[in-house]
Amino acid sequence: MSEFNRLSNHLLTDTFNISIPPLAIEKPEFKARIARDIKLALYVRSSLPLSAWTFSGDDRTFELLCSCVNGTFIGSLYHPPRPAYTVQSLLNYIEQCVVELNRDYPSSNIVLAGEFNLLPESALVDRTGFDQLVQQPTRGVNTLDLVFVSRPMYDVTRVVDSVVKSDHKAVIVYNDQRVATCNKRK
Fold it and tell me: Which of 20, 34, 65, 123 could share a disulfide with 76, CB 3.0–4.6 Å?
């Protein structure tokens, strides 16, 4: 089971009618961090510590929800097909967030996941040095939903049919912790 799940704008507005406080809430199995004004959510296994992280130059123009889960910083991003801002300004903002995180938490991992639409993947990789993990289409023939990581953290990336009503596939990244067993018969 995944340690955390990200819900994007289209899932929250089209699929769910929810009324949740704006920060962390407790559920039997999951905690949630919701940014009501940008319609993003991050659900985390309740046994893991979850806290908000806010960039010192926070700008609500961008639909980016930042959280810290068990020492890993997670940015959930929704970049609409026709944004009210320039692509360059979003790239600058993401780069500044990463610089601040690396300065303040140099040994932490960073994950940036979300719906990137027409944001140039190569420009984000050039600016952050992150690796992009998704190599299959997530909506029709397009790869819109991406996961970027600051260093190798996951050894499996899967694109699967979503369990909720969506025209996007779900992206799952995780470590395969199965231990190879040896047959010791002689």
Answer: 65
